[in-house]
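QA checklist item 7 of 12: single-chain prediction sanity check.
[x] sequence parsed
[x] length recorded as 444
[x] structure emitted
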Amino acid sequence: MSGRANSIIIVGGGASGVVLAAHLLKSPNSDLRVTLVEKRPHFGQGIAYSTLLSAHVLNVSAAGMSAYADDPGNFWRWLLERGLATQNQAPVYAPRSVYARYLGELLDELEARELKTGRLRLIREESLSITPTASGVEVALANGTSVVAHLAVLATGHEEEPAQGHAIRMGSEADTALAPDSSVMVLGTGLSMVDAFLALEQRGHRGNIVAVSRRGLLPSPHRKGNPIKLDVADIPLGTQLSYFVGWFRKLIKENQKAGVDWRDVVDGLRPFNQKIWQNWPSSAKRRFVEHTKAWWDIHRHRMAPEVYARVTQAVQSGRIRLGAGRVIDIARGAEFTVKVQSRHTQRLETFDVARIYDCSGIVRDISTSSNSVVRSLVDRGLARPDPLRIGLDVSANCEIIASDGTVSAKILAVGPLTRGTFFEIDAIPDIRVQCARLSKRLLG
């Protein structure tokens, strides 16, 4: 692409899209044109950062949440400059609404800086489809217009599967006022369940909460520490999952004997997570997703300490009841009667609840995505699900792979959509590195 006017459309103006735009616009190329398209009223929010509840805080400390891969302290300085944190507070887990403000101001600064150059264009509209053309791509918008460029990058971020059956999503239109003392059930026991609990508390809800997932596991808390130093040569790449898990458990035990917290071992592995995933055979990846991922998630994706304290207090007091099992029947009457089969004993237990919240996580099959652009690409064979169907199939260079195996030079993707190839690509510290690398490859 070098040597000609570069025009790039970023489809999705949430966190991933804004971070990619910021990295692209670091280029001195005066011919660069970046168009950011977002259907929500505000850029930089998406699902993750659109919450207004002060209790919904980041799951990564401020020191790790800079939008820029080459300036890791950017967000922390932003907090300090606005009096939203002090030096002696670290680590700080800022409200997600504050992070949305940070991304919004970052984009405002870029827009003001590029006002005269015309290198940045913001479009508040839904994207419907991307079509390759002889000279690039055309993105059709819901208002009947379209925009063209040399290439398009999908940055649509996290997408939650529509709630199934009688369950509803927290914060959706169906999430109407609830009697304060009513009992509720939450499907899922991970970070989304934690968000639901905090939202209910902030609304003044006092009733019991039954949280059910296959294993009933609660995410662990963060603690201040220092990740261990590992070399890629230390890591058994390309092995079967059982061997790798055995090696990793042994590594943790050895470090714990030396007084090292297990978190420092997990965090020491982080720089190599994508390489580990990409070197596993497909059988190991599938077994990991089906059997090991739940255990990995509670250790890798942790809660802020103050949030963990609130949740564990609720568990200890009986306000939250964690269950390992599966829902086998839901009957609707004045309330919902839910039958849950225990994972360990196979015993059936019945719960009467006023509401069921679906906090079961990400979409399980990307081909059923509710995103118009993603569905359009898959339906037309311009894209295909990755082998595990947890994202779109993309190359190591983020290029979309069509149903016939053709690698596209015109349609790319970043962020959670690429988890099938990169796995650990849901959080800002990983997304910003991906965006920095892609920007460098596209623009030099």
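[x] summary fact logged: Confidence is low (pLDDT under 50) at residues 1-5.
[ ] second reviewer sign-off
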